[in-house]
Design brief:
Elements: E1 9-13, H1 21-31, E2 35-39, H2 49-57, E3 60-61, H3 69-83, E4 86-91, H4 97-100, H5 110-133, E5 137-147, H6 161-179, E6 185-191, H7 197-200, H8 205-215, H9 223-234, E7 245-248, H10 259-265
Parallel strand pairs: 1-2, 1-4, 2-3, 4-5, 5-6, 6-7
The structure holds nicotinamide-adenine-dinucleotide.
Nicotinamide-adenine-dinucleotide binds near residues 19, 95, 146 and 197.
């Protein structure tokens, strides 16, 4: 523990269960001295698992459907009432109805596509617009979204989530430009495939994680690795990093092929 977030306040979206990346981020932010509100879609909070995290981290839980401007307005009003201005926001939200229902990309259902796009991408804009309108970010604050390399390269089973992630990353760059006026940074972290509820919904994810592991010189990044990176990005050590898509993937994104994968094809493993 380094006390990197001592005195910082924030909102963390997307902790569903102890596998969730946002769950690990909340634990690490707490260990580093931050205070925050935990939020998730009301329907996702039915099981009540988030209450254990709230207790562990001394946090309040406030439900909000991240596609609803009304819900987000209420959430941010509560955060302002509790903390005054805040220093960080984590958007760790993703869902594709087409992925969930196994609908092929070539046969996509457009109503489902719009729903998934709103939840996975536009909600990032809605969160930032709410914070913007309420002018509730402190100077040198930090806003993060989580993404995946399917935004840049084709991973067929990722389906329309690939397009949603491209859109999400673009929102980070574009809104990040405007947030610069207020000395707030906006970035996305592009995370290795990770075994979570959302991650395991992607077809063939087990084999795919093994492939990513073999392709990455440092191996796959865990949810905890991702949480540590988020802490760094919320801390004062990264103040001038903005409008970036930052890979936390053990080197996967810059590897053409690895010896391990070549050996497998040569039947040497
Ligand atoms: N797991 C992976 O392999 C992986 C890899 C790269 C990026 N990511 C991204 O990390 C983020 C977190 O996913 P995760 O893997 O921790 O899975 P997760 O299923 O634990 O988290 C997804 C969260 O989104 C929330 N959510 C869904 N609809 C919502 C709505 N309308 N309003 C508010 N919240 C809503 C869910 O309740 C859940 O808490 C997502 O953006 C995901 O795309 C995951």
């Amino acid at each position: 523990m380094y006390g990197l977030l001592k005195g910082k306040k924030g909102i963390i979206f997307g902790a569903l269960n102890d596998q969730s990346i946002a769950w690990k981020v909340a634990e690490r932010c707490h260990e580093e001295g931050a205070e925050f509100i935990l939020s998730n879609a009301p329907i996702a909070m039915r099981m009540g698992e988030i209450n254990a995290l709230a207790e562990k981290t001394g946090s309040e839980v406030i439900g909000a459907d991240a596609t609803s401007m009304e819900d987000l307005g209420n959430l941010f009003d509560a955060a302002i009432a509790k903390f005054g201005k805040i220093d960080f926001i984590l958007h760790s939200i993703g869902m594709s109805v087409n992925v969930r229902k196994g609908k092929a990309y070539t046969d996509i259902n457009y109503e489902w596509l719009e729903k998934g796009w709103d939840v996975s991408a536009v909600s990032f804009h809605k969160v930032m617009k709410t914070a913007w309108d309420k002018d509730c970010m402190n100077e040198w604050g930090s806003i993060l979204g989580l993404t995946y390399i399917a935004a840049q390269r084709t991973f067929p089973d990722y389906n329309d989530m690939a397009d949603n992630k491209s859109y999400l990353e673009s929102i980070a760059r574009t809104f990040g430009y405007y947030w610069g006026e207020r000395k707030v940074r906006v970035n996305t972290i592009s995370q290795t495939p990770t075994m979570t509820t959302a991650g395991s919904g992607v077809k063939g994810c087990g084999g795919f994680m093994g492939f990513a592991e073999d392709m990455s010189p440092l191996g796959n990044a865990t949810a905890l690795d991702c949480a540590n990176y988020c802490v760094a990005m919320f801390s004062d050590l990264t103040r001038k990093v903005t409008m970036q898509n930052l890979f936390n993937d053990g080197g996967f994104s810059n590897t053409g092929v690895s010896q391990k994968v070549v050996d497998k094809y040569n039947g040497e493993e």
